[in-house]
């Protein structure tokens, strides 16, 4: 069945439908990863977005039970050059088209994804609609220009109630702004006693859980749309070790007096080089964000830049100059992508234990 993708700048791409046949609207972005489509479509950070996958053939290894980053995907749609109808992998349970139909997620294929990506790089992320070929393009463009994208994505994807993921090690409160399961897996692998809490949990409620450390998860949207999170971070800063990832990194920066801004087309892929300034070591990283911390806003804060993106020089890591707190813009848990930065979870554990040892010494004195 023919379908069309209409962008707010008037560009139209005619292709074929796969997945659900419902009409969908969202911010059209692109991801440069060669693999990992299952993790991408289940990443809560894509809430409200229509994702273009730049690799030309998608679906070749099917969908399996283990590689999801959330139970219910929040992605609004998927755009690919070609969908593989006959996946081949020993773990595959069903095909991409079958899975998108089951989750009511629309897709469009057989369009020029290279041209679409160049348009996004030129004009920035654009609102778009995947709809029937019969729909009036001029009317859709008008509606897109008048349409305001939702700003409550974090509340849509965050857990509604707190829940434990027990372990015998350090107690970590993981604040869920749209948490990828990969983050929880890395903490569980290190035997952490994790309590996952909703995005609007207050500093007082978190401190009552007596954590050894607090982790701020990834998530969708503009960090300035989550002011309650900024206030919470201000309330725990300096009282407990803190580690933030992606949206958590941006929220941490806002809480410390820095500023954030929207990027032209963002970073989305599993091949982004990042340099650690202290060692000059370069890691290939998995990334998914459309906002960044403004460099100029750091100078009047107690923050230090620790990592920079080699492609465009944007901030990829921060640490507090006085408190045990650090954050990164990229995803050290990978899923999908390289695990070059996985050691950051160990750094977080070491930070918690150093803080714990200091507390024990204070009690003895």
Short description:
Pathway: Amino-acid biosynthesis; L-arginine biosynthesis; carbamoyl phosphate from bicarbonate: step 1/1; Pyrimidine metabolism; UMP biosynthesis via de novo pathway; (S)-dihydroorotate from bicarbonate: step 1/3. With 365 residues, the protein is of the alpha/beta class.
Write structural notes for this entry.
With 365 residues, the protein is α/β, with parallel strands linked by helices. It folds into two domains: 2-149, Carbamoyl-phosphate synthase small subunit, N-terminal domain (Glucose Oxidase, domain 1, 3-Layer(bba) Sandwich); 154-364, Rossmann fold (3-Layer(aba) Sandwich). 25% of the residues lie in helices and 31% in strands. It contains ten helices and 19 strands. It has helices spanning 37-41, 96-102, 113-123, 137-146, 153-157, 181-189, 203-208, 227-236, 247-255, 344-364, and strands spanning 2-7, 12-19, 24-31, 49-53, 57-58, 77-79, 82-83, 106-109, 126-132, 163-165, 171-175, 193-197, 213-216, 242-245, 260-276, 282-293, 303-309, 315-320, 325-328. A ten-stranded mixed beta sheet has the order 10-12-11-13-14-19-18-17-15-16, sandwiched between helices. A seven-stranded mixed barrel has the order 1-2-8-6-4-3-9. Strands 5-7 form a two-stranded parallel ribbon. The chain is globular and about 65 Å long. 49% of the residues are buried. Mean pLDDT is 96; it is low at 360-365.
Write the layout of secondary structure elements.
Elements lengths: L1 E6 L4 E8 L4 E8 L5 H5 L7 E5 L3 E2 L18 E3 L2 E2 L12 H7 L3 E4 L3 H11 L2 E7 L4 H10 L6 H5 L5 E3 L5 E5 L5 H9 L3 E5 L5 H6 L4 E4 L10 H10 L5 E4 L1 H9 L4 E17 L5 E12 L9 E7 L5 E6 L4 E4 L15 H21 L1
Parallel strand pairs: 3-4, 4-6, 5-7, 6-8, 11-12, 11-13, 13-14, 14-19
Antiparallel strand pairs: 1-2, 1-9, 2-8, 3-9, 10-12, 15-16, 15-17, 17-18, 18-19
Helix pairs in contact: 8-9
